[in-house]
């Protein structure tokens, strides 16, 4: 989960990739550092590149293909994934779009050799790393200029840290399927100011859900400012700035609202998105609507 889930929305739901037909090429990268100063604190990095395939005449549907790479390091265990994505968008009513997407790839899990007792039979008889595949992540999304709602599912085709040859980590460790839900509503406050409350929920099967709730304000498609909260874990401040015409940078700082603040107080995220082509629409003026800068990625 990312605090700026509306920025990295294509990484959480493949159906969100290439929503804007006018943006032919998109790429975004980001990093997250949680609980700075604590040993083995979680670190996440990701990179997403996608290309929108526009039809020569009809704009009732269009396609998007992409590449998504991520790394999740918790110190004791590290996992990385490489995925190809494909998304089809259908214009069903005026500006309303229904999107169907899928990511297909593989994940490699690796445990820290130094962190475990090498005399433990579960360590001696198993591998330090294993690659599991195919990891298939489907998603669906409904959106227009006023709202979006989406669902995706993870770890539905891989359920344990074991490959097809029986090589495994642990005895073996289980991977629980999880469901991801997102919803947001865009409210125009003035010609240049937009407010967007939203929620994202990640629910592993048979485990408590992780819910992020945020409210952001965007001014003239140039600056976004807001706050968010994750369960009873973090309260966050978010700042997003668009510059150089086609670059948007997002920053999030999170502070623990539970007892964790006595051990490690600081967590942060940085994301940068670039659209080399597109983004040429006039976004200010008499008849314009303030447009969220993160809705393009």
Helix content: under 10%
Strand content: over 45%
CATH architecture descriptor text: Beta Barrel
How many domains, in number, for the residues? 1
N- to C-terminal distance: 16 Å
Number of helical elements: 2
Across the major sheet, the strand order is: 1-2-3-4-5-6-7-8-10-11-12-13-14-15
Number of strands: 15
Tell me the Rg in angstroms.
Answer: 20 Å
Structure class:
mainly beta
Biggest sheet overview: 14 strands, antiparallel, barrel
Mean pLDDT across residues: 86
CATH top-level class: Mainly Beta
Give the overall shape: globular
- The parts where pLDDT drops under 50 for at least 5 residues are 277-290, 293-297
The H-and-E topology, N to C, reads as HEEEEEHEEEEEEEEEE
Instruction: Predict the CATH topology.
Output: Porin
Descriptive key words:
single chain, 297 residues, mainly beta, 2 helices, 15 strands, disordered C terminus
Short characterization:
Helices cover 3% and strands 53% of the residues. The chain is mainly β.
Walk me through the structure.
The protein is mainly beta. The protein has one domain: Porin, CATH 2.40.160. It is 3% helix and 53% strand. The chain has two helices and 15 strands. A hairpin with a 3-residue loop joins strand 11 and strand 12. The longest helix has 4 residues.
């Amino acid at each position: 989960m990312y605090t700026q889930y509306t920025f990295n929305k294509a990484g959480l739901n493949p159906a969100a990739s290439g929503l804007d037909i006018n943006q032919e090429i998109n790429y975004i990268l980001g990093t997250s550092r949680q609980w700075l100063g604590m040993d083995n604190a979680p670190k996440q990095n990701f990179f997403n590149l996608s290309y929108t395939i526009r039809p020569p005449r009809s704009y009732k549907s269009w396609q998007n293909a992409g590449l998504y790479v991520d790394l999740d390091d918790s110190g004791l265990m590290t996992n990385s994934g490489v995925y190809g994505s494909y998304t089809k968008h259908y214009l069903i009513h005026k500006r309303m779009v229904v999107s169907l997407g899928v990511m297909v790839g593989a994940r490699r899990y690796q445990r820290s050799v130094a962190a475990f007792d090498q005399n433990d039979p579960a360590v001696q008889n198993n591998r330090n790393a294993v690659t599991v595949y195919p990891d298939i992540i489907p998603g669906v999304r409904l959106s227009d200029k006023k709202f979006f709602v989406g669902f995706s599912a993870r770890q539905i085709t891989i359920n344990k840290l074991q490959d097809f040859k029986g090589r495994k980590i642990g005895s073996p460790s289980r991977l629980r399927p999880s469901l991801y839900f997102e919803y947001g509503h865009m409210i125009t406050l003035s010609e240049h100011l937009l407010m967007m409350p939203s929620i994202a929920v990640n629910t592993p099967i048979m485990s408590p859900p992780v819910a992020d709730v945020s409210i952001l304000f965007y001014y003239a498609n140039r600056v976004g400012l807001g706050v968010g909260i994750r369960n009873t874990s973090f309260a966050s401040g978010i700042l997003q700035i668009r510059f150089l015409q086609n670059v948007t940078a997002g920053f999030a700082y999170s502070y623990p609202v539970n007892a964790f603040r006595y051990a490690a107080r600081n967590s942060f995220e940085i994301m940068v998105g670039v659209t080399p082509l597109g983004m040429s629409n006039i976004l200010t003026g008499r008849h314009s609507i303030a447009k969220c800068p993160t809705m393009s990625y």
